[in-house]
């Protein structure tokens, strides 16, 4: 049985991704930072015969990441699919009103956390000729006004994806990226209904995405063996 590690698996998108892999026969490790209940709720939706592990880790702490990987190896085995979904979206604000601390917080979670877990699993991925799917954002592709820190961090994830895809390709490992548009989750709860409606009207498919839309894109991309270094926009056509 193949093993998938999903970071940020207690959130709306991460939990949907975890469920999708479990439904397709993967044993799943669900990483969370503080929301244990969210990870447990996601695992409750798994088929009854699927092994899983809910594991706490601070992705900004190398020792915590190492401990998580050790636990996954002990309880489940060698990881063949890594989905880097953990991330934060800071409040919308002018770049001139942000601070160095704001920047560090966003990049630590969205970029360093992604890199840290991936680095720790390189040998697993080489052994299994596995795959990595990173979560960026449509703002990482297009940029968003009053979303400068978030946009920059998600653009960095895209650069990381493309570079690592070239580096790991000789080992048979694929590295790709999904860039969601506006998905109705708690992460977007800070947006006003007016802002949400404006975004919907600018989306060619004229609707918001669901966590299941993103989960479908991630799962399919993880299994494409002759596709690497690509960014799949799951955004209803927003970035066209």
Task: Describe the structure in your own words.
This protein has helices spanning 12-23, 36-43, 62-75, 100-120, 122-128, 138-142, 148-168, 193-202, 211-222; strands at 3-6, 27-32, 52-56, 81-84, 131-135, 174-180, 231-234. The longest helix has 21 residues, at 100-120. It has one domain (3-234): NAD(P)-binding Rossmann-like Domain (Rossmann fold). The chain has 240 residues and is α/β, with parallel strands linked by helices. It has a 7-stranded parallel β-sheet, with helices on both faces.
Write the CATH homologous superfamily.
NAD(P)-binding Rossmann-like Domain
Give the N-terminus to C-terminus distance in angstroms.
38 Å
CATH class categorisation? Alpha Beta
The mean pLDDT is 96
Output the strand order for the largest sheet.
3-2-1-4-5-6-7
User: How many beta-strand runs?
Assistant: 7
In the CATH classification, which architecture applies?
3-Layer(aba) Sandwich
- List low-confidence stretches: none
Overall number of structural domains: 1
Main structural class: alpha/beta
Q: Give the topology string: H per helix, E per strand.
A: EHEHEHEHHEHHEHHE
**Count the helices. How many?**
9
Beta-strand fraction estimate: 5-15%
Broad shape: globular
Radius of gyration based on Cα positions: 17 Å
Please summarize the sheet with the most strands. 7 strands, parallel
CATH topology: Rossmann fold
Work out the helicity level: 40-55%
């Amino acid at each position: 049985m193949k093993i998938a590690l999903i970071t940020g698996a207690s959130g709306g998108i991460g939990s949907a991704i975890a469920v999708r892999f479990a439904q397709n026969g993967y044993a799943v490790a669900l990483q969370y930072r503080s929301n244990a209940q969210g990870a447990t709720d996601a695992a409750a939706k798994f088929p009854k015969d699927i092994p899983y592990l809910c594991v706490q880790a601070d992705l900004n702490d190398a020792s915590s990441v190492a401990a998580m990987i050790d636990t996954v190896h002990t309880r489940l085995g060698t990881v063949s699919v890594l989905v880097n979904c953990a991330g934060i979206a800071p409040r919308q604000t002018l770049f001139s009103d942000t601070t160095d601390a704001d920047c560090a917080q966003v990049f630590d979670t969205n970029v360093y956390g992604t890199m840290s877990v991936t680095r720790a699993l390189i040998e697993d991925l080489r052994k299994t000729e596995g795959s990595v799917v990173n979560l960026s954002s449509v703002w990482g592709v297009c940029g968003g006004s009053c979303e400068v820190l978030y946009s920059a961090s998600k653009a960095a994830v895209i650069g990381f994806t493309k570079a690592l895809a070239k580096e790991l390709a000789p080992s048979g490992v694929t590295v790709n990226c999904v860039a969601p548009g506006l998905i109705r989750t708690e992460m977007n709860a800070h947006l006003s209904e007016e802002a949400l409606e404006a975004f919907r009207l600018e989306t060619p498919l004229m609707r918001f995405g669901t966590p299941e839309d993103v989960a479908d894109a991630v799962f399919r991309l993880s299994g494409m063996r002759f596709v690497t270094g690509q960014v799949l926009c799951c955004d209803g056509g927003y970035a066209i």
